[in-house]
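Quick one - inputs below.
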Amino acid sequence: MTTNKDLAIQKIEKEFEKLSNLILEQLRLLQKILNKEEDAGRKKIMQKLVSNEDLIDKFEVQLDEKIVKVIVLHHPFATDLRRLFAIYHMTINLERVGDLVVKITNTYLEIEDSTMQDESASTLQNMLKITSKMVNRALLSFINNDEEFATWTINKDMEFDELNRKLLKKNIKSAGLPKESQQVLNNLVDLRSIISSLERIGDHATNIAESSIYSMTGTIIRHQNPKTEN
Amino acid sequence: MSDLIKHIDDPVLEIRNLSVAYNKDKPAVTDVSAGIKKNKVTAIMGPSGCGKSTLLRAINRMHDLYPNIDINGDILLNGEETTNMSTIMLRRKIGMVFQRPNPFPTMSIHDNVIAGYKLNGIRLKKSDRNEIVEKSLRDVALWDEVKDSLTKKGTFLSGGQQQRLCIARALAFRPDMILLDEPTSALDPVATKKVEELLTQLKEHYTILLVTHNMSQAARISDYSMFMYLGELIEYGKTKDMFIKPIDKRTEEYLTGKFS
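Output:
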């Protein structure tokens, strides 16, 4: 017998699958951008990326509200509860992946010019392939209850971090710059990393503030235009 | 049964290989062993007919006068076998509260609280009587509501107040343990909340064993939970563990509403 609670959870799971597919599509679109798609095609890709991003934000808010409703109305326990919380956390992370895809696209288009070496471009493409596969397998792990895929992704992450460090150094070295310039470049890369981390702390603070407002008023203000302040 | 909890340190009550059958073809409880932790709320859950009420009643020897009943195994209260105690003594040490509030209809609120003493022919000084009545009613947060109407009949009270009066009656003997058989199923949400709050406070001084159909209630107020199915104790563990990550598939199915 299927209960209202089962139906509500099934609906949430279906919506989560749709959100997952959207994120995977965003990653494929990014791959096309990095593959140096022709200008005409690129414009279409950009439009699709932006419209998908709006959908992703809406899905995130809807899933959030639906999960709260199921918890309030049906008091789920055991696997039901664990699944809902997993979806809740995964949704937050998927939305962040979506944001990053847009951010990467914009940054790439800013720096991409004739001076960008083919090697750098292909490095980014390879890295994107690996990360896309990680996202894909992590999601499949949840959808198909496949622990192996989850373990693969977790292990890959450690391997991937190490690979990234090496690739970055290699790219700087292969640019053929004098040693002093290479050092300056390495320092700039490190500085950029610190700045990004600080930015992310700011982003997390904003998320905490939004959750605080939700706690006080019950209103989800994520993805809405911020109020102006003095 | 899963091996989540096999041994409880410092148990008030120990149930050892308890089996109860109303007749030989129909076992109601089969080979249940468990220790009940002191000053904690333990909830017994399970679908209708799983044996949870039979288990609770066996602890208080309420089946003693049932014809043809077959009871095997041991129950020890503070290390002493309950079968070696008189039922009167046992029920002073283990109080019982039932599903429907059942104050004695002809007795006043005051007399209902000390009904156990009166019915057992125990004479108390007036000052002791009044002290027990006040203490017991204060323990169930009913004193302020009824202190000016102690001579009124117990049935004069609302359902929730009557149930708290019944709990006060169980507390009047200062028992080691209180057994409650679905104590809030006949109460409205406000009265239910008061009883739940009360049980949470009472565990400071008493050990509480509660049968409930209401999973959310078990999750809210119990420290330990037992899941029974077809007379067997399937899983026994800390409530916070069992409700999030049950070990046995049947517990999982019960908690997620796959069967009831």
